[in-house]
Amino acid sequence: MENKAHALIAGLFTVILLIAAIIGVMWFNSDRVERVPYEIATKLSVPGLNPQADVRYRGLDAGKVDAITFDPKFPGQILIKIKINPDTPVTQSTFATLGYQGVTGIAYIQLDDDGSKPVKLASSKQHLARIELRPSLFDNLQSKGAIILSRADEMINKLNDLLDPANQKTMVKAFSDVSDTANAYRDIPQKLEPTIRQLPALTGELNQALASVTALSNNMSVLSKNLNSLTASLQGPDGAVTNLTGAVQNIGSVASGVEYDTLPRFNTLTNEARSSMRTLNQTLDHFNQQPQSILFGSKALPPGPGEAGFVAPSK
Questions:
Q1: pTM over the 0.85 mark
Q2: Residue 124 domain-assigned?
Q3: Beta-strand (E) ranges in 103-253?
Q4: CA 74, CA 62: separation in Å to the nearest integer?
Q5: What is the separation, in whole angstroms, between the first and last Cα of the chain?
Q6: Domain that includes residue 74, residue range
Q7: Long-range contacts made by residues 216-225, C-beta under 8 angstroms, separation at least 24?
Q8: Could you give the CA distance from residue 9 to residue 2 in angstroms, rounded to a whole number?
Q9: Digit-coded pLDDT (tens) for 207-262
Q10: Does 93 reside within a domain?
Q11: Which residue from 112, 177, 185, 292 lies 20 to 30 Å from 273 (Cα-Cα)?
């Protein structure tokens, strides 16, 4: 009986010790950190993400995933509740993406911040703040892959349309035409060979012509400079233009003198000559009518009308 009592006590002690060990392990493994709750609402797929998954902020451990549920208010939307260490700098511009641990397929929440709104995002159990979940690299690759596959399928269809029998005949005919054209132009280099041989001589002549043009240009430059000098000398204070202008002014003065002085005198002289000639004519007429007047003097003229002794001629 005594041995059985000792065995029972030893068994009870062992069970109690085992229970105490389990409680101790659970107590040491329990998470006693007071974390801040946040919520992520998304309609993206979250494959590989489970409760108690890690939450990292730019690669550093920042918390755990608390729960993953469906949103009863919005069908198709998933609510992910996470708890983050209070010292994690969560702001209004913090966003989340899904990260994967190697090839295991186990996902975790990766937090990052673009710095557009550096204001701390407050959250509590009563008022959960939401963090945006953006498409991860895998999601982008998945969406881009679908687009790439769609375009590849479209390209394959176009290639199939391009390589249909009718187009194949057209392409074969085009290749044949190109071959015929190449054969037709095969002799052109031989025909151009004499011309090509003359190219050095033509190049030499062209160089000579260019040298002549250059010399002509230099001569024209010198001529232009000489003309400029000549023009400057002609237009100078003692230049020919100035002297010519003075001569023109003198000629104008002489012409004015002839117009306003010499011509009136000439007119007066002409009038006097005309009067003398008229008097000489009258004298000659009187001499012709009365030549004896040279010896006896001229007769007195008969009285005119209104003078004493005037007799009107009889009809």
A1: no
A2: yes
A3: 107-113, 129-130, 132-133
A4: 29
A5: 223
A6: 36-134
A7: none
A8: 11
A9: 999 999 999 999 999 999 999 988 888 888 777 788 888 888 888 888 887 788 88
A10: yes
A11: 292
